[in-house]
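Bit of a strange request maybe. I'm writing a small parser for structure token strings and I need a real example to test against, not something I typed by hand. Could someone generate the tokens for this chain?
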Amino acid sequence: MAHIPEITVLDVTDPRILQVLDISIYDSGLAITSPSLKVYIPNKSTPYYVPFAVGKLNTYTAFSFGIVCTDSLPAIPDGIYSVTYSVSPNDSLYQTIKLLRTVSTKNKLLCILGDLYTNCDLKNFSVCNFNMNSRDQQIAYIDTLLQILESAEADVKNLKPEQGVNKLNWVNLEINKYLYNSVV
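Reply from user aminoacidic:
Good idea to test on real output. This should exercise your parser:
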């Protein structure tokens, strides 16, 4: 038997991390050599090769992908990611996953929902000025935006990346309209 590389990218809630779990099947009679994780992040044409621990949960931050901020650990951007895990011989034993990361966008929507349910002030974001008639309509609208995000993620998994990104961008525009009561 040969090694069967397989990874899963976890659906995290912390926008500052990306987690990749190695769920590969390894042949105990063969050495595991040259494990490699190659990650393409949104708006970058060059891949990042990041350290990868075999059989473990691997956690990456923005620093892993060259995103630097002097004040704090920045969020990893939403958008399309391509993640390839391979072991030697790396040209024939690999798995590639394409996914649409929506963590920051989803968290904004969940904060708005929390605000609607508790009427608390979220850093001066006001949902009271939005042009919908009732809180229930606002909640239904935010829920619809969450469903569109899920649809966008599915589009990328189903090899429709442009459609997925268009939906993500549209949802972010709607969030801005909602929060700032303006046309973006």
